[in-house]
Amino acid sequence: MTYLFNQPSAFASELIEGFVAANADKVRQVSGGVVRSTRSQPGTVAVVIGGGSGHYPAFAGLVGQGLAHGAAMGNLFASPSAQQIYNVARAAENGAGVLLTFGNYAGDVLHFGQACERLKAEGIPCEIVTVTDDISSARPEEIEKRRGVAGDLTVFKVASAAAEAGLSLDEVTAMARQANARTRSLGVAFSGCTLPGAEQPLFEVAKGTMALGMGIHGEPGISDTEVPRADALAELFVERLLQELPPGVTEAKGQRCAVILNGLGSVKYEELFVVYRRIAQLLQEHGIEAVEPDVGEFVTSFNMAGASLTLMWLDADLETYWRAPCNTPAYRKGSVIKAEPLSAAEREVVVQEDIPPASDAAKRSARCVLALLETVAQTINDNAQELGRIDAVAGDGDHGIGMARGANGAVEKAREVARRDAGAGTLLCRAADAWADKAGGTSGALWGVALNALGTALGDELAPDAERVALGVTHAREGIMHFGKAKPGDKTMVDVLVPFSDTLNQQVAQGASLVDAWLAAAAVAQQSAQDTAQLLPKMGRARPLAEKSLGTPDAGAISLALIVEAVGKLLQSNQGGAA
Amino acid sequence: MTYLFNQPSAFASELIEGFVAANADKVRQVSGGVVRSTRSQPGTVAVVIGGGSGHYPAFAGLVGQGLAHGAAMGNLFASPSAQQIYNVARAAENGAGVLLTFGNYAGDVLHFGQACERLKAEGIPCEIVTVTDDISSARPEEIEKRRGVAGDLTVFKVASAAAEAGLSLDEVTAMARQANARTRSLGVAFSGCTLPGAEQPLFEVAKGTMALGMGIHGEPGISDTEVPRADALAELFVERLLQELPPGVTEAKGQRCAVILNGLGSVKYEELFVVYRRIAQLLQEHGIEAVEPDVGEFVTSFNMAGASLTLMWLDADLETYWRAPCNTPAYRKGSVIKAEPLSAAEREVVVQEDIPPASDAAKRSARCVLALLETVAQTINDNAQELGRIDAVAGDGDHGIGMARGANGAVEKAREVARRDAGAGTLLCRAADAWADKAGGTSGALWGVALNALGTALGDELAPDAERVALGVTHAREGIMHFGKAKPGDKTMVDVLVPFSDTLNQQVAQGASLVDAWLAAAAVAQQSAQDTAQLLPKMGRARPLAEKSLGTPDAGAISLALIVEAVGKLLQSNQGGAA
Lengths: 579, 579
Fold this sequence. Notes:
The structure is a homodimer.
Chain A: H1 11-22, E1 27-30, E2 33-36, E3 44-53, E4 70-76, H2 82-92, E5 95-103, H3 106-121, E6 126-131, H4 151-164, H5 169-181, E7 183-189, E8 209-212, E9 223-226, H6 230-242, E10 256-263, H7 269-285, E11 289-296, E12 306-313, H8 316-323, E13 326-327, E14 332-333, H9 344-347, H10 360-394, H11 399-419, H12 424-439, H13 441-458, H14 466-484, H15 494-509, H16 514-531, H17 555-573
Parallel strand pairs in A: 3-4, 3-5, 5-6, 10-11
Antiparallel strand pairs in A: 1-2, 2-4, 7-8, 7-12, 8-9, 10-12, 13-14
Helix pairs in contact in A: 2-3, 4-5, 4-8, 6-7, 10-11, 10-12, 10-17, 11-12, 12-13, 13-14, 14-15, 15-16, 15-17, 16-17
């Protein structure tokens, strides 16, 4: 869908106005399109690009210092007229002739050709280079019939940087031809697009299908398949492009390539990065160095879903011009801030994870804390599904999964630091960090806070005693209320933690053993968890809440009650042992 | 739809790998996210941003010199954990403390808060600024409850540039608060989005509906309406944002604003420019100067369709930091190429349209040519629908509309230059250019070529005679075949033009009057046009051809035959007069 337009027939001219209003520091409008609004170096070749509108950043977004001097902007998906191209070229012309360069489509060839003849008839030297990078659009023997797609950018960039460097029209033309001869692209599509105000899509791709080689106006591709996994698409792209090395390149290994992974409109950046991950691996495996790769949207077709991979096989000149600075509305290279890359050693900044020294008593206690964590994780794993079911009533249903990830992560970390002779305090703090990290979400963070507070109270010097544990629980309760911003009565885990902590502290103050005190407190916690069964918003990340039933207890309160109960049982069965 | 992924559960971590592979010159991966791969100025504050993944360029795309020092990257639409944030902050930390800044969501507030406490506990000064720009998410009296959307960028940019300038942590924090206090956004949504591998959309918007104020994770908005026209959306955005001037701004007039028109994923650049056109007009009407406006994708939600407008009301400091250079994967300011803006006079380069002097005879002939063009336009207008119908069989059905646009444009231009005393040759050439310009498409260009050739043959000195007209038609035919690359037998207008031109020239050579020769040639043209009725591909812009019926004549051939017939009739009825 295209959503935003006024009169569909005015769309192409209105978009130019808005584009120029937003980018007046770089471009200005002339009859037929846009040219730079900044002074170009006198006596240099002007590079004029163009084509139909609907492919932004192509073509107007690529006008500016270091890239094109002007862009002729046709109607949606339609070539600009010769008159438009002529007007833009006259306004862009800079004393050393004009290179017209554009994707190879019949209408564009016709109109740019006619504009070229007119410029020459008026004494302005003019040359043409058509871009023919799309390997799916004709066989290698008919390369001149191929369409131009995202390889437009590599050719425009090289030609423009050569012009900026002061090369003559013949030399700039030769560089553009060289760039085109060494540029290859392959595209795929998953959906078509609908032009502003149209009732029907201009073209479509069957749901679940990938059209291999489909063009950016829906030109038919080579074949249709199921949508592959991201890695499989990366492999397809690289394999096909490597099957057709350009003239002068005998083997892929050792080559350097400019790389563009282009999204057509509604395949988004995150997806492109997942695909690029595998492309980068494959290029490395083939011994190809990716030079200033670009991953993003460079030649689009409204909200068409699709992507293409472009490789320009570099030589020394092409690399120089590919890397040269430029500053256009949609494409910029070079930085005014000079910044050195970090050295390899500096990149290896690792957050310190030294294990502080601990007393023998604290090391023994650490074994006990590890056993407790294992019991907690087991309890959570056993109840994860039920916790998820409870959470789904009022939240997003991931409480069980998140708690299980957190508890299992905590156990894994605790085992590691126990092997490295950590004390009980350090072990619990490290496990707490791992819990928060693996669990994610709000409850993960709160468990991280709670276990960290408890671990800090235990310390690495003495064996934990009842007072120390009770104090730690108090600190955990304070941390959770501080960070979670929940108060008693909000129907969260706080409604369990507060009576648990109160009872534990009272019992300990009255001289009860840790085990007895803990068991008494756990029983109170059980009751409190059931009492949370009321309709109240859950604290947490803002998101649409599913409708809630009255009477379902809070999942976070339930899991806390389960955990203190399990810990109590283990303490009881170990009564003769440590802790 | 999200199309490209491997294991959905691995999506968030794979996208980081791909992102870092594509941008290794600017960022490097650390546990929990990314930090700069270039050396920051020692002794400056580190600005660490972050949030859930799925919003690229937010957040990782904004890390680099002049912008953020690091970004903690959570799972899709989920806050990073405190551990992740802590790790990123430790790796980014640069000797002068850390500012943590992020959009105001409960999960992020919790985790960033916890990371902040941990950093402070380790002796690293740390402050927090949450971004609360979304005016639809809470009333002005509860501004601290508002969500952060695209205003993230203005706050991050100002804070980071202040850090780059060497300000202390307290000063950087104050600047970030000032930026947030003066930043306001309003967003709308037209569709939801589907996370990788999910079978159902995460949230939806009813078809044809605009959800005003919907958040970037589908948080409920204020109201639902029909999708408005682009201009009406611009008016809504500006009106609502101007209703809530920030503290310290008493009237809009005379203010300077940073402006971001943000697309959420599948509302594309061209649509945004159409909306921005009206926004720019409105800001100007209100006396507001837009400073370095940005139109594009800055905070997305996969392929969610929607847009938002952000204004940051500038003061001197905010403007300095908004304009400061930066160089990140997705956001760059400043250019290494120094380029002066053109002066106002230089911007007024207008392609010359002087009318060359003409003989009185040629001026009289021009009136006759104008009358002929008017007849041609009338004929085309009368037959436009039928020409469209014929064209729809083999082409895209726009031949009639295009020809009518061209012919009417030609008449308009011919009238203008006739008033300025143009000769017949100049009048026809200018009309030809207007035809090609207004008609667009292949046939428009070919008619431009043909009429230009004819006009050149007529010239501005002598009254046209039969020989000159016949020669002009020959040149027109050559021009069309040269540019159109069609040969006789390709079943195009060439199949009509060639026998027409042959007959005309033969008749004239045999001494026939122009009228008689033209009528004879027109009759041949009629017959030839009917003969094009065979199944053959049409020349033209590459696009999927509709299925064709055998037996429909070519629309371009038909319109040519109609035109020469109409011209013949007018010549006949004027036989006593000029030409």
